[in-house]
Amino acid sequence: MSKKAWAVAATLCVSAVCGTSAQAAVKSYDLGAIPVGASSAYTGTTGTGSFTVYEKFSFGTAPVDASVSYSDTVRFATNAITGGVLSLFSCSSNCTGTALAPTGTLITSSPLINLGTTQQVAGFGPVTLATAGAYFLEITGSTKASAPGVTYAGTISLDSVAGGVPEPSTWAMMLIGFAGLAFAYGSSNRANSALA
After folding, report:
1. CATH number assigned to the domain comprising residue 138
2. Are 9 and 47 in contact, with CB atoms under 8 Å apart?
3. Average model confidence (pLDDT) for the chain?
4. How far apart (Å, rounded) are the C-alpha atoms in residues 105 and 121?
5. Residues 105, 148 within the same domain
6. Both 189 and 152 in a single domain?
7. Mean pLDDT over residues 49-55, rounded?
8. How much is the average pLDDT of 175-183?
9. Per-residue pLDDT for 4 more than 60?
10. What average pLDDT does the segment 20-37 reach?
């Protein structure tokens, strides 16, 4: 599945007085609908300094088990992401398109873990998502403001949840078992009353 490569760079004021201190870079990508039983790759570039990146996606059949992976390749060891976190949210507003930052409820998160000096990884799953609809990943952290952003890649996998409603043959076996228990209980009561 191809990802819409429309990234929007917006700035958010991170201090009480706008315009007098550092700004956070915000980018938003929209992966669109991911079919259940499939995986979707995502890629992007963080901002410089403090940043937040959103990867929006949706699916139509629930429940699903979602698994998410993340990795980046840092060009220079001095530009590694610090305080990085990968989080999964259910989306409540601004769930599609790339123009606005989404909002929602946190489901789970994972810190970015350093592997040596040139790569960081994160991931989680399977996490059961009980409701079909819109979700998003949020990647946050900071890099040196003078260095280029960090390029990252990952995968979102959606699999059907095993279980659900029992098959008709399972129901039949359960009913036969209950009937057998009722018969055995009734027979033992008649035998006990005959002895009394």
Report:
1. 2.60.120.680
2. yes
3. 78
4. 23
5. yes
6. no
7. 89
8. 81
9. no
10. 77
